Write the structure tokens for this entry.
Amino acid sequence: MRIALDAMGGDHAPEQTVQGASDFLQNCPDENITLILIGPEDAVKAQVKKHPFDPTRIEVVHASQVVDMHDRPARIVKSKRNSSLVRAVELVQSGEADGAVSAGSTGALLSASLFLLHRIPGVRRPAVCPLIPTAHGGFLLCDAGANVDVRARDLVHFALMARANSIHLFNHPRPRIGLLNIGTEAGKGNELTVRAHSLLAEHVDNFVGNVEARDLFAGVADVVVCDGFVGNVLIKIVEGMVLHVAGWARDKLKQHPIAQLALPVMRPALKDLAQELDYEEHGGSPLLGINGVVVIGHGTSSARAIMNAIRTAVRAHRENLLESIRRGIEAHLDIFEERHVVTTA
Amino acid sequence: MRIALDAMGGDHAPEQTVQGASDFLQNCPDENITLILIGPEDAVKAQVKKHPFDPTRIEVVHASQVVDMHDRPARIVKSKRNSSLVRAVELVQSGEADGAVSAGSTGALLSASLFLLHRIPGVRRPAVCPLIPTAHGGFLLCDAGANVDVRARDLVHFALMARANSIHLFNHPRPRIGLLNIGTEAGKGNELTVRAHSLLAEHVDNFVGNVEARDLFAGVADVVVCDGFVGNVLIKIVEGMVLHVAGWARDKLKQHPIAQLALPVMRPALKDLAQELDYEEHGGSPLLGINGVVVIGHGTSSARAIMNAIRTAVRAHRENLLESIRRGIEAHLDIFEERHVVTTA
């Protein structure tokens, strides 16, 4: 199995991406798994030298361009064809790689994947589906930001795709699927969620109904479905709270002289907690609905996040996630078709 | 000034509501402010006896019925006309009270207020607007759940009403108004927020543009505008995190033997923090856009929350919040009208 890594994706590339690649290989004894690192050859090779890579398990592919935040995602294949991000997806298209990983722009990666790999037949909207950690192991949030305006039927697809993800990547034999809503009763919510509720109940196995944001951290569902606007607000508020409440707590403790004395001994425990809460460490998300294994890592792209994102790609390929999604969508194709009532004369 | 209090509203009524009334009067030296406690006479008077009320500042008004969670909000005035919640609003309607406070059902209070007091002319959708505490004093979130499906122009009204609230109740001379969105650039977001952005820029003073959920706790805006679905998800995720992350942190600390030893000395500091983070303690919210002072307290209705909600009502009346909202809406009535271009011949 060969995984293509966009060595230039993320805030700390190529240092952290190459280190993540090295960490992945160190921890992966299966020698059939090799990595293709893509980026400006000199820059990538300079990083590669710093790590004990097994030369039979790594290849560097030159790509002169780098996608940056000023690039328009929708035009990325045309404007930066020779970028490390686009080249990584191209290697999947040509069959030279079994999966691609990038911690670059989600929009650009989605756009390149749609253009080069297309959708799984029947899927209208690909989605992203990160794991949000909780004390109970976490839940998958789908969609977390790829689609800001959706129809109720799209939410059913998100549920079907995220369900496959949960089964194959997180070993949930029968994940509980919840609809993010502002009340638990069936009639609650806005037009979108009221409609989605009945469709989900009809089409999705183990649909546990509406779930409220306050209960997500108590582990009420393994997969939480919502539109990408709400999903994106949700992950960013979690991120903001982790970031700011930690500082706020520290300030508060400093106002209590005795508590302040205890701060140093708390540090290792608080660091543990912060790391667990940090969803960015948790391996990225496959672009669900794309007809190829493409994993978006998180923008902070610590070496650990990159290593975990590569693992996600390996697992998606090995578990044949695409086939599972394809079957799930196929079994419910009728939700996007006009229904014809056949009457027997 | 007379404020009517629904003594039966909230999870811990009438004990906590009556204690909140008592605490309010103890802390309010202005003897012109009196309270009307509404509920089943025996139940309320039994509580009143337990506190050192000045009999010239309190009156108990009998109401035999109590609104519960099984009542349909839209029918509340018909189905429970003699409930403490409906009677509180009626006293405002008749002029016997200058404001009403309830920690009961938001839906029922909104419905009763719409039916009995109507909207401020020009307002299409009343909204709720709680303070979300942060280390920087907090921000007002509007709408936090009264309206789940809105138009871009409704968001402008939310901004104008919440702005008046911020000025009069929180002493912000010129509050910064932000639009909750999934990116800070002007073109970002879903259909609703893209449209709302340009309307807000045109109609609202000191509009600071899009704000992202992750930055809310860093104090980027004094008023944050969004639809009620997103707003409700936001406050509930904050609530859920405060609730669950605290327990999670405790478990984590217990895994570190030395940190665990320090737990007892941390307790007062952590309690302080939890209380500051708890938006339910922060005084409830006026029903913005209703043509009368009606304050919804939070459902947990601790005595402190009730005391703060009464203070909010007093302040809304004293500052003439309604008149300020009326003027704000009037100055921008054109956003809900067809625009006629007048050409001089």
Q: What stands out?
A: The radius of gyration of chain B is 21 Å. Chain B touches chain A through 55 residues (CB under 8 Å).
